[in-house]
Amino acid sequence: MRSCLFLTLLAPFFANSATMQLEFLDEFIVPADLRVDGDKVGGLSSIEYTNGRYLLIADDSKKPRYFQANIAIKGQKIEQVQFEKSLPLVNKQTRSGVVDPESLRIAPNGKDIIWTSEGSIKYKHAPAIFMQTEQGLVNFTLPKMFEISKTSGPRHNAVFEGLTVAHSGKGIWVSAEGALKQDGEESNIEHGSLVRISYFDFASKSMQKQFAYYLEPMVNRPEAKPDAFRTTGLVEILQVNEHQLLTMERSYTAGIADGGNDVSIYLVDLKNVTDTSQVASLNQQSVRPAHKTLLLDMASIKQQLGSKHIDNLEGMTFGPRLANGNISLLMVSDDNFNVHGKQLSQILLFEVKTGK
Description:
Layout lengths: L1 H13 L4 E12 L4 E2 L2 E2 L3 E7 L2 E6 L6 E10 L2 E12 L12 E6 L6 E5 L10 E6 L2 E4 L20 E6 L5 E6 L16 E9 L5 E9 L14 E12 L2 E10 L7 E9 L21 E7 L15 E9 L5 E7 L11 E11 L1
Antiparallel strand pairs: 1-22, 2-3, 4-5, 5-6, 6-7, 8-9, 9-10, 10-11, 12-13, 13-14, 14-15, 16-17, 17-18, 18-19, 20-21, 21-22
């Protein structure tokens, strides 16, 4: 029960955290030409800490995989990052449709992994949540609201982007990147939107409850061209304690010299939220979304980074305790294998400070 034990060890640190601060410590840039077991290291869309090692999923539909890495932290610095293995997510015997890997967590038994796929809505390949065991892939059952159709269901490239094991160890929370079609318009510069974060238990492999989360409007980059491609989304979640999550929101604008990425981290409180699991549409409905507090606008630390650059951050995990006893937090960026231009696979290290 490694993951449950980890949560138990974290519980005293995070119990009833009225306040939380994230202090930037260090940055590591993964070499763009790095390969392990013959596979290119890139597309790093999530990061998970387990048994002293890190698991990082690769957002590669052609060869779905994840990497095992050793990230050595000494004092307040990343001393070394070594990618040790490339491991398959699916093979010809277990492959289930077209997959677009986005997030990965270790199961409470410390052996199985849970991972999400956005599928390809444009080409009618369904999103999915998988439990990968020694026997193969097991699918979680998705409710009708996530079925693909012209008027309802998920939008392309805006489905299961975030994943975290629940505090109880009995299930998972999974977040959609953007609003479902039936829930209203997508976030844009003028307004935000409501997205759904759903709880699936391990026993039934089905959704048991759900709540709405307010996704902020896109960050307005006035220097961009009027017709520039823009997008925003909820890209990762991380359970803190029984009633709190960390969330990562990323806004992107194409054609900007600094890469066009704006990333913010929020502390989210689940108390008194409306259960939306039976709500067909959030559009013009009176629901109580989760309360959120901004913890960190990544733009505020940009000049502290060696790269002076915030890239396409998509993953985060709590890491080991630091020398002063505080918990570490690590983030990772997806460089899209540099197919859209030069990007970075960056690993960022933070110290988590809490208070009552």
